[in-house]
Structure formats: C-alpha cells, structure tokens
C-alpha cells in the first residue's frame, strides 16, 4: 500500500537590500502561491539583508519600514544578514525587533556578549508545524568576528553552530531547513559536512540558483538579489516514515507579478516614505561655499573626508577613495537626506599600520584609469566607480607623462619624505581591508575598526567645522 504524502511549500527571499519597489509584487506572488498550496501548508522565510541603510525609507525609519513590509507580506521566520547585524547598533535592533516583528528572528550563531545568550528578541532555532510536518529552522549569519565584537556581539563559527543544532533537532523534526546568510561556498561546505540537513536556503553572495544544487541528500537554493527573483520549494514527505520523498525548488521572476502588486504593502511603503522624508529633511550643516566631488581628480569633498578620517582615528595620514561620493554639495543647507544621497555606503573608518611601499603602490595605482574607473559593488560600497585616492597629511608630487608605476616622484609626510621600508599609521576605510579596490591597502597590520560610524557620520562632523572646510581646498596632489 502506498504511503500518504504530506506536503509543504516554502517561499523564500534573500538580499532584498531595501528594494521596496519589488515588495508589492513579491507580496502578491506569495499571497497567490500561499492560497494555491493552502496557508496551513506554506512557510514564508527571508534569508537576511532585507534592510539596507542606503535607502531613504530604511534610514529614515531606522529599519521600521522593512519590518512593517515584512509583517504585511507574511514572513514567519527570518535570518539576520550582515546589513541588519552590522549596520544597526544593538539598541537599534532591540527597538526594531522587540515590539515590531510578527515573525521569529533566528540568531543561531549570534549571542549577546554580555549575557552569552541569544538576544531577547531572537531565538536560537524554531520548530514549526505545517500540514502535519514538523520543521526545524536554523538561521546563521556571516562570520565577521572583528565587527560583531565591536558592536557587543559574540558571533559563533556558523557551520559548527549549525552542526550542534542539527544534532539537537534531528530527532524532534521531520525536516531541517537552514537559513544561511553565509554565501554559496559556505553553503556547499555546510551541505557536505552536515548531511542531516534537508534544505539550505542561501544568501549573502547574491547567487541565483535557478536549479537547486543537490549535495548528498541536501538541496541548496537561493534567489539572487534585490528582489528580482523569489524562491519556491515544494516538499513531499512520507507520512509513515517521516522522510522526504521529493524536494523540488525553483525561482520566479518578480516582474511577472508586477501588475498584481499588493495594495496593502504599497500603502505601507508610501506611509514610511513620507515619514522618512520628514526625518531626512533635518538640517545638519550650512555651507557658505559649494564643495565639489570628483572621481578622477582631487576635489575638496574627498579631501574633507580624508581629513575627517584622520582626525577621527587620531593619526597623521588619511586615505579614502573618491568614489565614495556620488555628487558634491551646493552652498546652503545640508540635510541628513542629502548626505545619504551623496554618500550612501555603510562603510566604517579603520586604522592600520601600512608600509611606505604599500602606500606608494596605492598612490601610483590611483593615477591609472583602470583603477579610477573600476566598477565596484559589494563590501559595503554603494558608489559606482572606485575613483582616485583622496588624502590628508600627505603632499604628493607626480608626473602623469611618466610610465605606469613610476609617476609618483616624491611623497611628503609633514617635513619628511615617505620611506618605503617604514610603517605608518593610516586612517582609511574597512572596504580596503577586504582586498577590493586598491589591494596594497589590504596589506596593513594591527587593523582596528571604528563602529558604528559611517563615512557620512564623519562628514556630518566635518561640515560643521569651518576651518576643516577651508583646509579641504588646500591642494595635496601636485603635477610636476
């Protein structure tokens, strides 16, 4: 006699990054797919980075807009992404999730360093029953130890944490689903090392798996980025053996549901857009003169940021790429929203010891079009191109007509020439420590990160300093 089958439909998104324009269509699709399978047979999940503070609704509402949209869409459990965990303080996350979330927040590898426990608004795992199937949910986030420590978190190695929870849950549930904001390579490693996992729903590296990977008995799925796609997994389980018979995953284009966008979600987004615009209209500085930003040549706004980094960290040299600014500032009032528009990246200051040789290499590369025009996305960068280097504390003499990597003639630090064999304390940005952009700037040692400030927070302080603004007009790069 054939065993009866129990069925489950999982709907999942990842790495929405506050692309609110996609959420009405995703909500409409979820309502339709939930109705066709039956709400009692459907589980709706997000795998992290739904929030992104570059978007006005998120920044102006401190993430409340995302929570309201997720509640209205019907999410039942979510994993934290690094954009939630690292761009908001503990206090902000407590405010966001404690009273506003209608879903479970999975913190399977994130503990409060003071208590050694998951935060009060999170759970280490979640067991939910759908259509007679008991599902164990585990949610793990990327292992950025240095950053989480500075914010008061004790992050656990995610694959080891997952293995421990799988051992604990396996006998209690019919299906184990891991919400993994770790990236595809780590998902593949997890599937290979922990074969008791049935499904891994992935994110973080923005990978799209139109056809799921099957590694042993584990099905690995992911739905790309920015809400362009969403994922569906249909599961059938033998009612007697309690084992999966079929697990079929696929993705759908969100645009296919654009004409049937959910009106309730649209209304939530519009409401938060209006309230966020009010918050972002607050004036933080008034400029007596415009401050230009340029990607391919020295400009005051980039100099001002380099100076601000240097002062914040308390050293003699500041270095940052000009591409952090999308535009310059006109004279007159400067608002919170305008700073977000021109400097949207959630990037933090950092301090490192760099050799003169590595500084010199970066300065040489800064004069080359292939570096200035390099297209970047990720690692916190929300600009368009890398841009040349803006500096403070240096005087650079160069010859553009000289061969590549021989254009820099002399570099002065105060009254001394840069020595290639000497180490210098340099204030720069966390992005460079990840090995992107100017690679020699990732070779520093003794790296210290400064959180929770973003670059636009540094700019807000500098724009209120008339002397710093005047200094930003002082030339650092001299053609010879």
Automatic annotation (TrEMBL):
Family of the protein in this entry: Belongs to the 5'-nucleotidase family.
PROSITE patterns: 5_NUCLEOTIDASE_1 (PS00785)
Record domain 5'-Nucleotidase C-terminal: where: 292-431
Keywords: Hydrolase, Nucleotide-binding, Signal
Residue ranges constituting the Calcineurin-like phosphoesterase domain according to the UniProt record: 8-207
Domain of life: Bacteria
Name the record gives this protein: Bifunctional metallophosphatase/5'-nucleotidase
SUPFAM superfamilies reported in the protein's UniProt record: 5'-nucleotidase (syn. UDP-sugar hydrolase), C-terminal domain, Metallo-dependent phosphatases
CDD domains named among the record's database cross-references: MPP_UshA_N_like (cd00845)
InterPro entries for the chain: 5'-Nucleotdase_C, 5'-Nucleotdase_C_sf, 5'-Nucleotdase_CS, 5_nucleotidase/apyrase, Calcineurin-like_PHP, Metallo-depent_PP-like
Pfam families according to UniProt: 5_nucleotid_C, Metallophos
Organism, scientific name: Paenibacillus radicis (ex Xue et al. 2023)
